[in-house]
Amino acid sequence: MYRRIGFRQVARYDAYVILERGAIELHFSLRDDHDPTVTAGVAYLRVDDVNAFYAGVVAAGFENWHLQDPSPDVATRWEAHESIARITALESKPWGLTEFALLDEDNNLIRIGQVRSKA
Q1: Residue 109 bridge partners (DSSP)
Q2: Across the chain, what does the average pLDDT equal?
Q3: 84 vs 12, 59, 73, 94, 95, CA distance in Å?
Q4: What is the DSSP letter of 117?
């Protein structure tokens, strides 16, 4: 999934993997007791151009479940061996960031954002 948005695997160990995209590194540990109906982990990536990053994620084909009525159920899709990878809309937040969320096939939450310039 991460390959679709420009990440590449740079290391893999028994229960650990490292992905890289430019200066960004993501580290994941694998767990046998993982429950995808509960977010496994959370990370925040600050990027220089959140609009371009978001456009690349959309172009890679990620679903925006918030645009569907009703949104699919994570547990039902997981049990059916369907993808649960999805994104949220790109939004300007009141705390001065423009951001979106990406949730991967294991339901890890990665927020991706950019500080808005003060005009």
Answers
A1: 42, 103
A2: 87
A3: 23, 17, 9, 28, 28
A4: P
Query: What does the chain come to in residues?
Result: 119
For residue 74, what is the enclosing H or E element? helix 74-79
Model pLDDT for residues 52-103, shown as the tens digit of each residue? 999 999 999 888 887 777 777 888 888 898 888 899 999 999 989 999 999 8
Phi, psi of 77, deg, nearest 5 = -70, -40
CA-closest candidate to residue 15, choices 31, 3, 26, 2: 31
CATH architecture of 33-115: Roll (3.10)
Give the DSSP per-residue string, 7-71. -EEEEEETTEEEEEETTEEEEEE--TT--TTS---EEEEE-S-HHHHHHHHHHTT-B-GGGSSSP
